[in-house]
Amino acid sequence: MPATEKTWRDQLKMHVIFGITSLVMLVSTIWMLWKDHNREWRKWQLADRERAHWTIEAQLEQTKAESQGQLNTLYLQLSEVKRSKIEDALIENFRQIVQAEDARLAEAGIEEKPVDFTDLNAAQARLQSAEAGSDEAADAREAVLGELAEITNEAKRRELALTGQRKFMAADLTAAVSLRGIAVGEGESTETHDAEIRKLTEEIAEQDVKVSNAKSYRLALESVVSEIQATENDLQKRVSSIEADIARLQTQLDQNPGRVLDNPLETVVRWPIIDAFNTGGIKLEQIWLQDMKINYNFSSVARYDRCTNCHRAIDKTAPGSATAPAYPAIPRDQRVRALQLVPPAKVSEVVAAGKVDASTMEALYGLRLANRGQVNVDDVTVQVVHPESAAAKAGLETGDVIVAINGGQVQSAADVRHYLLELAEPNIPQGIDIRRGLDQPFTSHPRLDLFVGSTSPHKRGEMGCTICHDGQGSATEFKWTSHTPNDPAQAREWALNYGWFDNHHWIFPMTPARFVESNCLKCHHNVVELEPSDRFPDPPAPKLMEGYHLVREFGCYGCHEITGFDGPQKRLGPDMRIEPNYYDVAKQIASDPALNATEREWAMTLVERPEDNSAREQLMRSIKQDASLAATQAPSPAQTTARLTKETHQLADALREVEVPGSLRKVGPSLRHIGAKVNYDWLYHWIRRPADFRPTTRMPQFFGHFEHLSDEKQEFPLHNEVGEVEMVTDLDYTKRFEHIEIRALTEYLLKMSQRFDYLKPPTNITESASPDRGRWLFESRGCLACHSHGEFPGIASNQGPDLTRLAPKLNTPNGQQWLYSWLKQPNHYHSRTLMPNVYLEPILETDATGAPTGRVTDPAADIAAFLLGASAPWQPEVPTPQQQLSPREARDLEDLTAVWLTPSFQSKRLAAEYANKGIPERIAGTVKVDEMVLVGSLTPENRVEKQLEYVARRSLSRYGCFGCHDIPGFETAKPIGTPLANWGRKDTSQLAFENIGQFLATHGINGDQKPSAGHGEEASHEEHGLDPGDFGPDTGYFLQSLLGHQRIGFLWQKLRMPRAYDYQATVNKRYDERLRMPKFPFSESQREAVMTFILGLTSEAPDPKYVYKPTPRREAIVKGREVLDKYNCAGCHALELERWNFAFEPSLFGEPSKTNDYPFVQPVLSPEQIAASLAEDRRGMLQAHLYGMPAKNETTGTPQIVDADGVPIEPTDKSSLPFYKFTLYEHAVVNGAARLVGEPDPLVPASRSEYGPLNGVGHVGWGGDLAKYLYPRVIAKERETNPSAVAGEAWGWLPPPLHHEGSKVQADWLHDFLMDPIALRPAVVMRMPNFHMSSDEASKLVNYFAAQSNADFPYEYNSQRRSGYLAQREAAHPRLLDDAMKIVTNNNYCVKCHSIGDYEVRGGVKAQGPRLDLAYQRFRPEYLRRWIASPKRILPYTAMPANIPYDGNDPQLQRLFPGSSTEQVNGLVELLLNFDEYAKRRTSVKGLVAEPPAAAPTGRGTPPPRP
Amino acid sequence: MEIVRSKYTIALITALALSAGAGCGSPDLPGPVANAKSAKAIREVLKTGGDEGATAATAATGTGWATLKGRFTFVGAPPQRPPYKVDKDHNICTEGGRAPLEEKLIVQDGSNGIMNVAVYLRRASRVHESFQQTAAPVVLDQKVCVFLPHIVAPLAGKPMLIKNSDPTGHNAKFGSFNETVASGGTREYLAQKESALPLGVSCSIHPWMTAYILPRENPYVAITKEDGSFELANLPAGEELEFQVWHESSAGASQALVPNTPETKELNWSSRGRFKIKLQPDEVKEIQISVPATAFTGV
Questions:
Q1: What is the pLDDT of chain A when averaged over all its residues?
Q2: pTM here?
Q3: b/e for A947-985, b at 16 or more Cβ within 10 A?
Q4: How does pLDDT run across A254-297, given as a tens digit for each residue?
Q5: Do residues A913 and A709 lie in contact, with contact meaning Cβ atoms separated by under 8 Å?
Q6: What's the CA gap between B170 and A1388, in Å, rounded?
Q7: Which of A124, A673, A1115, B185 would disulfide-bridge A1110, Cβ 3.0–4.6 Å?
Q8: Nearest CB to A1389: which of B21, B28, B169?
Q9: What is the per-residue pLDDT across A880-889, written as a single tens digit (0 to 9) for each?
Q10: Nearest residue of A to residue B249 by CA position?
Q11: How far apart are CA A1065 and CA A994, in angstroms?
């Protein structure tokens, strides 16, 4: 076919298509560019840039306004100085230096033209004649300074010339040395070279002298010149500093382009593509965290956090502070505040005079408004507030948005002028409503001390954001970052404004604000490290810590294991597991009568100290040996058979060593001897509903949760009295079975209870028990540190149960005996109890003069009498059932037995048969342990008993009672609940939400509404009939989460109504398959705290480098803290006192009082400390940091408010300015001077609105509640016998504060003291109880105290107790110890109050101190020295006087101990620290050793006589 | 009374505002003063600055000198004084086996005079020259395990002596002072600041021993004698003087003695045990205060 012009396709058509596609492509390209250019983050960055511009401008203007006055003064002073005269003496001094130098040069023969003073003299003359302050003076002064500068410059020039010459000489020397080197290489003679080198070296040395002379000359001249110009330079420096501040802000302002609209060039360069050449600060940034992985299910990927693209100010600090946020995130409901602005007197005058404008506002009120808002352009915003102006006094600040004035809305600056100038009356306060604070993302992080900040432990670049907050860090758009709203209202607002939606596909949605502390657990596995500390006194994670403590207190870990380990080394998270059950096992083994004596001894050792490895292993081996005998058929009659029972053999395995043992004890009391304590009546009601007896109990409620059960549909079969099956409702069915379970449990626990030997009162008691004495003993012996009691409303501790109501439980013969034994020796009943032995030993009464009266009382009996006497009445909710089962109950019991048996036999019929007749012997080998009870034929006589026992055993297993209690026979049972170690990441598909939405829709949010009759069916089909928006922010939030099938919602509901998930599910479940989680009596906030903790359990430990690794000291503190919490040490002792930080006017504190202290007692202040105490903030105020506590009122025990004279006033006294007397417990540095412990209490201005200092915060201390409670009471008690008793000393009769225990006592001593405390201070109303802690726990406490005090641990070297030291000291001071002993035993000093050796102090205990003969074991030497020298410098309240005052020139006590007062104090320390050596020297043993008789003279071969 | 007090507060606040100095933009009240020196500075301001009657009360306007004297008598039967409960050093601390009597409230038989009432001027604008002569230092002795006298009032800035005349060691503890005073020995004490109320003195070794020390910056302090009488001579006349009345067993707040009788009503005696009076030059004013038992605790 010939070629033609015709194309295959029609050209025109092709052009059209091409044209259209080109257009489409163009449009789509433009669209793409537009889309990319308009990404959300750019919008936020531009907005933030504008905000930053606004802020800098405001800061600049504010700085100008603030410093204008100061600058003017400085300029004036500077100009004055520049016109002042110069002291002739200074110029003369200058001249003399010059002349001396000229003379020196001339003498050295150096030719140098002598300096010509003509011009200088002339200028000086001119200055002398000119009038100070005149222009001539300025001129002449400048001329004089010019001349001086010229001479100085000349000196500088000469010095430079000499230095230059030296350089050339040094180069010559280098050359000569190389030439010599070459000569050596070529084998030539080096003689000439050596001479040259010598010559040059000498010349250089001479030159160095010249250079040095010239330099000192120049420096001398310069020093005179700078002395002349000192004032001038100083002023100039201050001016420059202010100017530099302003210049710095100006530069910042210039560099920040601000609003695009304000900048014509910007409008162009912000266009797409072009903007790549000029970012203008708008660019995408990211924090790349290579080792901080995120788990994408199949692989772990490095994190990219881009959050800071929008949250640009997140790490900005307020000017002048390293940690205060620049833009505080103020909660919305606290943003608007009402201020009072007082118009000045001149206002009407000025307004009347004419036109008012912005400058009038500024002149009258000191208030300048910005021309636009900080973020919202239309906001009427304060830009500048002049110092001390009306606006400043009203409290207005830069950035405040004026919302309304006197109720009238403010829309513009003109409105403000209208209200404040035209309408305002002079001196009549005007109400101004302002809004303070910015919205996200413009705010800064609220805790920059902890997070993001450059000085924080979680720096922005190292940690990023999502490790703590979760969310999608790589996203740059609000909706894709998976922000999580904190309540439904916020969700709605976000959805509306930012297109937010719940992104189900992102598995790590941002943690909502209420649970943000959860994620701390990823890296803080020991948890207690998140308590407030010295470095972070503001609690870092209060809600999480509350949750942690609740989990510990309520013992959640008893059923739900929280394992923090993956193998012995790898940590995954917090570890909360029950300790190995060696105690329970040993107790059970000990009940085997066939145990031999040695085995019994081992078992009892284990009962007392389960940590005893040796006893445990020997016992285990011994039992296993016995078990192996049982396993083998006895081959011959000679071989012994096994002695021990099969159960004991099985228990041996439970004594194995555990690789990483848990450390928590079961939270409930032991039920092993429960029959010795309570009776059937009480126990039945307790199991049924613990809160019935004790409303504050922590024991959860297992029975009676019926809200989800139907009482309409009769679907459940039960046998009636005559054995016929009838259908009952779910409610009836459950009630009847629960009733049987409670009865079975009660009987079983009492039946299984093992024998308990009550303690008998000592025989020497002469007095019968007295509730009155018991009352005071209960109050003062420490019981209230852990228990509360309605009789003592001033203190409430929940370490132990509330004891208000005890009689209905224990006022039985058994109960009384038990209570007595328990009070006297709690560990005799249960050695794992946390209740300590408080040493209720018999008390030998004395009269007022201290003489014994012959009466002996028994404190344990007294306290028991008080507790049983002062008991609140109780009427159980339901009557106690008859012991005998009714026929219906018997039927129910059998039905329940059958239900329990069903899973084992897979047949309802067989189960029913076995339940009635018993399990045939032939299949006994195949049944489970619990079912062994039913093996053999059941008879009418034993049927009920056996069935009850079987049901009880099954119920105990099902409800997991052994998770909290020691129950015989359940020693080796395993926790029954879901492990919680990674519950925070639990797959929601594994959570059975079932019909919970319908349940709440039909029963109401609290489950307490009855579904409306007749509509039940329809109502149950209503899908999610509840709208979260109808509820408050909390309930609404959780409900939304629950309906959205999220973990948080599930957990919330599970903790509220644990059985509600069984709604409409019970019909398809056997009774034993139903939900069994009990309900804990949590309050709303407690529930949220527990959730915070549980949601943080993720087992997602990041790279080890991010996991918190404390320093050894910090670790000791963290480990010790766990033990302190466990035994509630803080119940009695103040472990930390209060820290008060506040700002004050420099004039507040005058000179501290003068003291006369030993040099080693005086505090050493660092220059930094002093400088910090003198640093003024922007308000011109200084900062004070005090440690201690405010003085307390001796009658009420509350902090005493005083007036400016220190005289107590009532808190209601509004006319006096209120102060606290703050007793220091550590030296403070205030206003540049040290404030010492033991000096008069400084008066700290009190805040009227709340407890603590004015203008600051009072961080509460830790512990000592009992001491504080008892303070007024022990004073009152003591005054009954001694009306003169001094209130201030009463702290010495109470448990001491332990804030520097570590620097005080020796580690060894403290360890042993904690294990077995001795009575130490006679004056204290109680004594340290015995907690029976393990050596490991005691060591942890010892290390804690030492670490806290920065003392050595775990050991300290005590050189003063080495014999060499003593020998050396005695060489210098012969009879050192004897002389020191003279002081001790002198009738004026130590023995007046302290017993020592066989000398006992007489008189009342309040005037007695600890024994001195034990001091050598107890004290660290330096502490003892400081204590003897000046006791009040350590404990401000101590009664101990300074015995040896520091008298440098006139030492006392020379008759006793010749030497200086320091030597005397040292001598006492040396004696006390070596008292054992002193005593040894006075003990003769020689006489006790019989000398062997001399050998018989001829007795060859006679054996020596036998001893 | 309320009015006077609030006027005083206004004056104080004004003074504080004045003393706060320039450059303070804080909306809060400037920090108040917490020590004698600063308090003094404020009083200076009060004297010179301030306006209208608020400061007139404390302004030094008078000339000449006057005397205030009087007597405190107990209404009713004098209370019993039980012996101290001596439980230590019996041979030293009892005389003839009899312990010394408690000193909490000493009422003279017959005259019913109340001993150991402290009457002192709260602030003195000027001090009579007779006080400038150096007097012998105040001495607080310890004898038969009793402090003698029961109340001492040293001048701040002047040393006082604490003695021990017993053959056993004692210590004296008050304020921040706590030193052993050896048998037959003496310790010196210098009060650096005045105290608005007497401070309790105790001996930790013999806990029944008790006394009071009242360091003052002005010498106008009187302690009533056995017959309940006191005299304060050479007081600044022609200006309002404010006195504090104190007794250790008073039921009033901070042990302020508040008799609540017609005589005290006439003096506008406040609930803090204070009354104000203006004396003419050379006037000798005498006040008789009968104190009902209800003004004391434990009676």
A1: 91
A2: 0.84
A3: bbbbbbbbbbbbbbbbbbbbbbbbbebebbeebbbbbbe
A4: 888 888 877 788 778 777 777 777 778 888 889 999 999 888 87
A5: no
A6: 7
A7: A1115
A8: B169
A9: 998 889 999 9
A10: A1283
A11: 8
